[in-house]
Design goal:
With 413 residues, the protein is of the alpha+beta class. It is 36% helix and 23% strand. The chain contains twelve helices and 16 strands. The strands form three sheets. Strands 1, 2, 3, 4, 5, 6, 14, 15 and 16 form a nine-stranded mixed sheet that branches. The two termini are 20 Å apart. The relative contact order is 0.17. The structure holds zinc ion.
Length: 413
Amino acid sequence: MENLQSRIEEHIEKLSQFTATPGNGTTRLTYSKEDRQARDYLIGKMKEYGLVVREDGFGNLFGKLDGTLKDAPSVLIGSHFDSVPNGGPYDGPAGVVAGLEVAALFAKNQIKPKYPLEIIALIEEEGARFGGGLMGSRGITGLLSEENFKKLKDNEGVSTEEAMVKIGLDPTLPKKRDPKTIKAFLELHIEQGPILEEKNIPIGVVEAIVGLTQFEITVEGQAGHAGTTPMDRRADALVTAAQMIAQFPSLAIEEGAGTVMTTGQLHVFPNGANVIPKKTVFTVDIRSGKEEHIQNVIRKLNELIESYRLDGMKITAEQQLYMQPKVMNREIVALLKQASSDLETPYCSINSGAGHDAMVFSDVTDVGMLFIPSKDGLSHCPEEWSDSMHIANAVQIFFETAKKLTEASSNDQ
Ligand SMILES: [Zn+2]
């Protein structure tokens, strides 16, 4: 366990050095020089741990331990290795490193799986260079087509394929992967929230990745002079918007079950200090682990809008995004919990409030996910920190689970 923990610390430390902003967090954009450096490190470790290394036409990285069954689907373990600008060393790499160390345990214990084990390191989950995010997993599963991939450009007008070639990757390699070649996907990720740390529990077994919906709401009133229009003669679009937004927290709390509701964007027109606002446009983001909660909040939001329409304001709501919650595979969730119990590692159930590659894979295969605590709940910043002991706990839980999923046998069992 101590060896495992120190190897994990070394991987995280090494990978964190591949940053475009030394001394100011991890900045590792997809297909950058730092991507190449991290990739070379991971390829070296995969080979050292006896894995056969392969890349696809997106630059996703796979290290495979063959199984004894011919043409059998693989159990994948991993996460992404890109970062946001000035991010932290754990968001993504923690999951890749966990996969590597599961492979190391297979090698050390001379375990022969029936089904292949593949450690994967995915590109562009954050979408910091080409936008959209979850690009590696969307590519593998076919959600992102080759045609659309080719069209993507970064801020400087560099296309995905140009950027790939520049760091020695081959965009002509196969892209979409046949789902029949995947048996399951396991991902470890930092929680990026405060729940596990507050409860002092080292492992969160993810039950669902929350569904979300986003609306854009437009309130239209009447502009007028801020000095000459009496208070009882106004149709102030900002006052109405503010009254609505102020009610969102209680709508979410009333719904319960971790339902959250956020207004993150607000535009005021004409936006003059001495003009009564004529129009406001704001966003509403609603998330929950259960679809019925999202539906309930949408209904309440519509009732709220209707009540202000009766007050004489013109209000329109446009739904811009709807994603169903993704429930993790019941059997894998049970295996993860069983392994935690057997290893005497305390765990609790948790929902993921953020999107992850596991969410994309859940459309094509059985998926399981673990969270570890984030110090002070922080992520996407240089202060992001997680305990290597918790990563080691997750590695052992994944090791036990992967042995079952790959139907492995070993000399000592
Ligand atoms: Zn991440």
